[in-house]
Amino acid sequence: MSDILPDYAVIDIISRLPVKSLLRFQLASKPWLSLISNSSAATFDDQNASTPLDFPFRKPYSTNAHVIGSCHGLVCIAFDNCEDIVIYNPSTGDYRKLPNLDISSGDTRYQYGFGYDSSTNDYKVLFAKRSIDHSFNETQFKVFATKAESWKRIQLNAK
């Protein structure tokens, strides 16, 4: 790869670079593209290294954030008990705020999921709300598909 540095030294150097730089450096040459794209070269030795994320979309009065999940470099984040849900690309700073969920407060529990559906080539967010009122016990499911740009309620048949 390099006439000056051995490959292990180059890999050590690039493993310490920010993602934005790596994305730019892939365009420098075919060997760089191959090296950076190779998953075995993309392992990071310093597991304690961290960079605080700056959320450009966060409301000034938001008090809590919950990471729903991450997939292919995208991070799905819920703010303030699902009032805002965002899919965020930290390497580019791009984000997409999802349409609001019609959820009521009360004695409920929420669960989320985020992933990629390869059969439809689409990212999806799963939202589950469980009412735990003593007289009423119901679970509702909704799925957000990025291509459809809407929430769809999922009905489960009880057996």
TrEMBL record:
SUPFAM superfamilies: F-box domain (SSF81383). This is F-box domain-containing protein. InterPro entries: F-box-assoc_dom_typ3, F-box-assoc_interact_dom, F-box-like_dom_sf, F-box_dom, SCF_F-box_component. It comes from the Eukaryota. NCBIfam families: F_box_assoc_1 (TIGR01640). Residues 1-47 form the F-box domain. It comes from Citrus clementina (Clementine).
